[in-house]
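hey m, so remember when u said the tokens were messed up on ur end? i reran from scratch. heres the input so u can diff it against urs
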Amino acid sequence: MKIIVTSILMALVLASSAHAVRIKDLASFEGARENQLVGYGLVVGLNGTGDSDQARIQLQSISAMLERMGVSINPNLIKVKNVAAVMVTATLPPFAKQGNRLDVLVSSLGDAKSIAGGTLIMSPLKGADSQVYAVAQGSVLTNSFAFGGQAASAQKNHPTAGRIPAGALVERELPNTLAGKSQLRLNLAQADFTTASRMAGTINEKFGTAIASTADPGAVAIQIPEAYAGRMIDFISVVETLDVRPDTIAKVVLNERTGTIVMGEQVRISTVAVSHGNLSLVIKETPRVSQPAPLSTTGETKVVPRTELKVEEESRRLSVLSEGATIGDVVRALNTLGVTPRDLIGILQAIKAAGALQAELTII
């Protein structure tokens, strides 16, 4: 009997925590965020696939670069097709240190045909404050090719954009916005009243005091306990590993281009009757030629039109979809009609219009 009771309790615990998610996967601490970096540069070493002389962007850049290296040249005299002007972008993660490496994305700015096989010359990457935070340089990888002649060409993937793995070095660090704070703020990835309340309750239960509170559904304010004074990292590591069961609204997402249907767990459907049938009309023109018999002295050849008309309509009865308690019941009820996913999109739209679909309908 004791073993049976223990098994039942373990099953209940597993069932209650089956949908629990760590706080670090639901929210982020204010101040610990990524920053976008952007820069301008030149890709050299191309096999005649760089910018043409009409672009002229790379010509001024080449002249300025050579000028800094002690070589003076008139931009109007430069004739090269092995250089392409590019924009370089990267994402600076929070708490990145000097010397850390970042992946960069290189995209053609002019009319270059391909930047495959090229090398990006040292390019500074700036943030929104116009300060240089990283410097990028290295070989561009596009995983593509583009070749052609006057009458034919061949291309694979996108040859005018590529990546440089670990191609940027961090030169400037962002200030630590968490140091010295007595209060932290958790920003939810998706604002929800129930999820924010559960998150605050879980944190208070863990530390045995009301240190977390919610002012709106998008954030949770946390007061750092005295026991963790001067131990900010330890406190955050405890908070972000706590499990919370998130709550979401009932939603159905429809993609009419691909016929994809995604339903949330909370989707419910009221009792409704649905009839779905297809009407197909086929019109085929097969003209025939009428001509007189051989060696005949009278008559003339004419084209006689002939039209074949065929109408087919599927005969399907009215199906009653009972009120579904779970998403599985809803899917099984809709599958009883024997329709395709694209037909289900129209059915779900009609059910929503009838007020029987208790969920938000999103069409993408």
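this time it looks ok to me. Residues 2-16 form the longest helix (15 residues). if urs says something different then somethings off w ur setup not the seq
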